[in-house]
Amino acid sequence: MTTFSDLGLPEILLRALSSEGYETPTSIQAQAIPHLLQGRDLLGIAQTGTGKTAAFALPILERFAAERRRPAPFTARALVLAPTRELAAQIADSFRAYGQFLRPSVGVIVGGVSHRPQIDMLARGLDVLVATPGRLLDHIASGRFKPGFTEVLVLDEADHMLDLGFIVPIRQIVAKLPKNRQTLLFSATMPKEIAGLAQDMLNAPAQVSVTPVATTAERVDQHVYLVDGGAKRDILIELMSDAAISRAIVFTRTKRGADRVAQHLDAAGVGAEAIHGNKSQSQRIRALDSFRKGRTRVLVATDIAARGIDVDGVTHVVNFELPEVPEAYVHRIGRTARGGASGRAISLCDNGERPLLRQIEKLTRQSIPSTDRRSADQRHDDAQPARRVNRGNGGGGNGHGAARNAQKHPRREGPHREGQRPSGQRPANGQKRRAHGGGSNRPQASRPQG
């Protein structure tokens, strides 16, 4: 069995890993760390929960241990780009935990908060800067961050950044970095845009793949309830009456929908808070902290949070609405069954979402067990294809045509910059459009899951 000491990490990092209770590396750590210690670029295909944050954080910290020097003002020796504020904060926490005896200077740059504290932090110089692309570009444009001194670049959750419209900002940032840097790119999937980005950015990279693309977590028990659309809220309340659901994340497609579901749960006596892109950074931090500490039983989230929430002990994930992009289903249900635990994923699927369910089953190459909770009238209608198709073609009824449209033009939670919509993207239906880290609440497992 491989141990962290077998990977060639220095004693100062091994001591930190031991103090955190980590003994053996995960598959991606065992495969990636030797390449990165040699200074090679790396392309990693890995979903959240596989331990990839430690896979890149430990070699970066080893570099700092070997060459200790104070970074110049307004520079960072290592730059990590992340798609969401939550993920950025968790990555920073991982660096602090693994480097606790090295004491690197670590900073976070995200949108939704004041510029002034970030400018003051950058002025001191940083060993590690973790940032979301939009706000970082602001600081580059104002001259408050000088990217020309960066030695290592990490792109985490690259496919999620593609979904959020960040590819152009990423290319703008990369164009300003030194050409002789070390570059690491991690993605759960490899669409052609990410493959092109990797080809442009990486120099003869090592390639590591630790889990098949779009494979759902083995320890997640999945189930679908076929429901009438208007019955979803009542069925959700019924589900939450189960005491076995001690900590749950409920996913909706829209921010407004998340707020409505959270309010409905709260009114029914189920403690719930919503988290999405329209919430301020302080509101999101408070909601996550309350959820982590068990003061809130249910967190209602949009897909922007699907890869950014890393909380121990999530027993259930509920898809109140199925995602319009099937890959998002994999990342949603990956919020449970972490750190070797088991979990359950329940999806509420109305007739209009049946095409989305078929796309998910096609992507994950499995048939998800289901229970029919629809009314007798709805079951009768569903048994008559001609009538169903006629209503769908008429723009009403089961909404199959709308579901297909939604797949072609998905709403996206994340903007070109936090709080804004990408240029040229039109809002629909009055709405604005769309790792495991470690931190103070990392899983108590025998290896770092960050």
Automatic annotation (TrEMBL):
UniProt domain Helicase ATP-binding: residue ranges:
33-208
Q: Which InterPro entries match?
A: DEAD/DEAH_box_helicase_dom, DEAD/DEAH_RhlB, DEAD_box_RNA_helicase, Helicase_ATP-bd, Helicase_C-like, P-loop_NTPase, RNA_helicase_DEAD_Q_motif
Q: According to its UniProt record, which protein family does this protein belong to?
A: Belongs to the DEAD box helicase family.
The signal peptide annotation in the UniProt record is: none
Give residue ranges for domain DEAD-box RNA helicase Q.
Answer: 2-30
The protein in question is named DEAD/DEAH box helicase
What ranges does the record give for the region Disordered, renumbered to this chain?
Answer: 363-450
